[in-house]
Design a protein that fits this description.
alpha/beta, D-Maltodextrin-Binding Protein, domain 2, 8-stranded mixed sheet, globular, single chain, 13 helices, 282 residues
Length: 282
Amino acid sequence: MMQWFCLIVLCVFLGMPGVSQAQGGGNFIFLASTIGPIDSGIVDALENQFEKETGIRVRHVGAGTGAALDIARKGTIDLVMVHAKSLEEKFVQEGFGTERIDLMYNDFVIVGPSEDPAGIRGMKTAAEALKAIAAKGAPFVTRGDKSGTHVAELELWQKAGIKPAGSWYMVYEKGSEGNAPTLRYTDQKKAYTVIDRATFLSLQKDIKLQVLVEKDEAMLNYISLIPVNPKKFGKVNYEGAMTFVKWLTAPGKGQAIIRDFGKDKYGSPLFFPNSKEWKQAK
């Protein structure tokens, strides 16, 4: 449902006067981004500052990673921002993208009701916690939409050696709408779920769920950029996309915004810089 909605938005938006259809327009770049960074506000912050400094407009459409990559496969997108390594690598291998470029990361956490019926609070690994949830048959909500979050969740279940199934494992029918609606639904169901920390922080005042398991290296959430391949789609604005990529990955530009984003509101950043240039500068 969300994928079709995004495609409709895309078609309408690209039909607007003065908007280049990802077809070589040097002063316009179109981005397909996974929903979490959009919901957090960081995509707008990066786009707006880039436009102020360069005069180049960037506009985005949001979808889960799988859907965002599918939209880009149609050749109407210049750049994607996604977070599912296996899907990203396939996208590049198929020739739709030129390369995966490290941008930033945050982490996933396992949240649940304060009563914690599965007794996972404080466990050191996601695998241990998921085994306990499955053993108890405690309610767990999954996005079930092949988004980056869903792929990451499935990888955690795989590491736990479990194929989740049963009435306790609930697929949120509107999961493709993003992490925020999924988290609200999980709260209503007093269930557990795997969610990115940025989404939890942005909603923590509105929900009763608590972070119960965190800081497992297996739950790091890496977000990448992939320019769409101009050899596949000759009219994409590859030059503009690479200008944006260079700015996003520069230590004193996009990476500095990523480093500080969320500190004023939450007391800690929502994302951490991770570009090759940032790491070299450190």
